[in-house]
Amino acid sequence: MNLFLRKIKIILLLAIILNASAVVIHGVSAYRSVDAFRSSMIGLGRTIIHSFESGNRVFRVYSQHSMESMRIFLQDLSRQESIRNFIIFDRNGKVLLSLGTIDQAYLMVNQNREELVVETEDLFYFYKPFNPIVPLVSPSRESDNIWRMHPRFHFEGDVPVQELTILLVLDKSNLNVLKHKQLFNMFQMIAVQIILLITFYYSIKLIKLYQISQERLRRAEKDAELGSFSNILAHEIRNPLSAMSGLIRFAIKKTPDGQVQEVLENALNETGRLNKIVEDFMAYGKDIPLETKSVNPAELAQRAAQIVYYDMQSKNITLQTHFANVVSDRQIDPEKLLQVLVNLLLNSIQGSPEGAPIELRVTEREILIINQIPEGTQIDKNKIFEPFYTTKSQGSGLGLAISKKIIEQHGFTLGVHSVNPFSIAICFEPQERS
Prior knowledge:
Blueprint: H1 2-55, H2 64-79, E1 83-90, E2 95-98, H3 104-107, E3 116-119, E4 123-130, H4 141-148, E5 154-155, E6 164-171, H5 173-254, H6 258-285, E7 293-295, H7 297-307, H8 309-314, E8 319-323, E9 330-332, H9 334-351, E10 358-362, E11 366-371, H10 399-409, E12 413-419, E13 422-427
Parallel strand pairs: 8-10
Antiparallel strand pairs: 1-2, 1-6, 2-5, 3-4, 4-6, 7-9, 10-11, 11-13, 12-13
Helix pairs in contact: 1-5, 2-4, 5-6, 7-9, 9-10
């Protein structure tokens, strides 16, 4: 199942990468297409002006052949939908030839009479200096027919011998349509990418939730089996163990030999240790009922510190406490949480080198215990809460497993932040957020 889930994540990730690549490629292609179309329109405008200048020099060659060429050129020009206007005007802004109306402000743009292209949102304006060589008088009837042969052309007055400017206005509608089409396609691909990212995010979240639920189910089944086994084993061991303890105590009282008494007392201590392991077995195998009430976690931490005070003194360990100014009351079983805190502090004391300090921090969010560990100690962070896992020479390895069970029944979490220094925390956030 894990392999299947991993394949799903890889497929989704590949889809995102491929679509992102497609978005980038399409974006570059769209930019180049629009830029090429724009360049072609600029080239078209310059070609039209060049054709007017070189192919039909009406102001230079005044012949019947030129008239006919001019007539054909202007007829073709008037039929071009992309041409909004074709204007010849002098340096004072007086219009000599126009295909339509024009904003006078655009006639004064090119005061230096340079070849210039001005682009607005909807139009291209091409300015080109035009210098007629042959002086002309007012247009004859034939030439007048040239300017007036199409209702879109207007000719005003005489054509003086002076510096003139050609202004060609091209419509950018086709370029804008192409831009909008490319942008629409780009937005579609970006939308697909966003959908893929959202799908990937929630798929990963659902996969993690599924894995967490499967892990909890597996652990619950394991705990149930282990609990059943522990109960059976504990009941089978506890009775003979109690009998052994009673017999050893009786023998100690009846034996005057001090050396024999010392041996018997060591045996009694070992039976006591075995009895503690049996109790841990039974505690782990049972459901732990909670009797919750509103309690301040900081007060429980202070009580736990007082309980382990003499244990710290035996190893010359100091407890450095850090309590937040405000710690809210929470719904807690005080006896069970105190049991957990004492167990965690005792583990820290037993796992710390001689004289090393221990930190106890209590905040609004968590209770944190930090202690140093001896050099060379290896702690497996992933196994530390598993039953029977321990790095100590004595102990059942059930203390942290039982503590985690109690904490999770409260709806909190118990986790290890680091192993060197060893840092363990009770987090008051809900389990689903951990």
